[in-house]
Amino acid sequence: MHIDLHCHSTASDGALAPAAVVARAHARGVRVLALTDHDTLEGLGEARQAAAALPDMQLVSGIELSCTWGGATIHVLGYGFSAESPELLRAIEDLHHGRWARAEEIGRRLEAKGMPGAFVGARDVQMELGDSANAPARPHFAEFLVRAGHVADRGEAFRKWLGAGKIGDVKQHWPTLEQAVGTLRAAGAWISLAHPIQYDFTRSKRRKLLADFIRAGGHGLEVVNGLQPAEQTGTLAILAREFGLLVSAGSDFHAPTDWSELGMYRPIPEDLPLLAARLKLAANAAEHAGAPDVAVH
After folding, report:
1. Between helices 118-129 and 86-112, what is the axis angle to 10°?
2. Crossing angle of helices 18-27/44-52, nearest 10°?
3. 41 touches 92 (CB < 8 A)
4. 149 falls in which pLDDT band (50, 70, 90)?
């Protein structure tokens, strides 16, 4: 696929530096890329410089914000926003502090279960990947647990300790869904609900989430996330049609040979309206108007 609107770098919980993500995406045929690191814009400057040096490569300003809804952690994707938005910068600063408090709490909880040095170990894993000022995330804790011999692999780490409802699932530091969407709207973003099938909700609860997301001001639904099962794509396509939502798609790339590869995801049903088209239209309009700082670079 030549468009990828969901990927991560070492600025959050990815394995490659932002410039390396851009280069890898371009080499794989991606020509419109959104770097959507968790709760940070730290990697965007480096990614923009890398994209500017490559032929026919557009970088979309992106972010994946954490929030809460119905007692669960939810992620919303923002695109094409102003990176200087005061509301967005304040929210990111709050999330930055919240992520450090969250990581420390995960470390304390794991240590209480007989896994000493969890926080420091996760931070060491993160620092090996890149000198990020952000807190270690659950994938870093998962890698620590594997190295320390507490689990056989990362999958087991999430199943036993870090996944939804487990002791490492710390969520009290996030804003509400309404607050997160409001922040992105204030920054002029297009907003999509990330990987809705990954939330362990009943069908009726998922429909209520979509209704609340739209009420808060959301625009789109991530109908395709990496190599999710085809039936999940069908389920989400039905919901996108029913609720009149734009559609986003992306690899959700974190590392080579991991969940997916850059530019690799299931096909999008052809009848669905693409959020990416709105981003490209906005970029073209800004270019024709001579704007010096457009959302897509």
Report:
1. 130
2. 40
3. yes
4. very high
Encode pLDDT of 249-267 as tens digits. Answer: 999 999 997 668 999 999 9
Q: Which residues contact 263 (CB under 8 A, 6 or more apart)?
A: 1, 2, 4, 25, 28, 29, 30, 251
**DSSP letters of 155-194?**
HHHIIIIISTTSTT---TTS-BHHHHHHHHHHTT-EEEE-
Claim to verify: residue 119 and residue 153 sit in the same structural domain? yes
Q: What pTM does this model have? A: 0.86
Residue 296 maps to a domain: no
Q: Which CATH number does the domain housing residue 51 bear?
A: 3.20.20.140
Residues 287 and 118: their CA atoms lie apart, in Å, by: 49
- Residues 185 and 265 reside in one and the same domain: yes
Q: Where are the alpha helices (DSSP H) in the chain?
A: 18-27, 44-52, 86-112, 118-129, 138-147, 154-157, 177-186, 203-216, 230-243, 275-289
My answer on whether 151 and 187 are in the same domain is: no
Residues 189 and 225 in one domain: yes
**What is the percentage of the chain residues whose pLDDT exceeds 70?**
93
Q: How many residues are there in the chain?
A: 297
The closest alpha carbon to 259, from 13, 83, 17, belongs to 13
Instruction: Compute, in degrees rounded to 10, the torsion defined by CA atoms 101, 186, 247, 216.
Output: 80
The identity of residue 119, as a single letter, is F
- Per-residue model confidence as pLDDT tens digits over 185-196: 999 999 999 999
Q: Is residue 32 classed as helix, strand or coil in its secondary structure?
A: strand
72-79 and 190-193 beta bridge pairing: antiparallel
- Per the domain annotation, does 81 fall within a domain? yes
Same domain, 200 and 268: yes
- Looking at the fold, whether 191 and 78 belong to one and the same domain comes out as yes
Domain count along the chain: 2
3-state SS assignment for residue 116? coil
**Domain with 145 in it:** 100-162
Give start and end residues of each alpha helix (H) in 38-85.
44-52
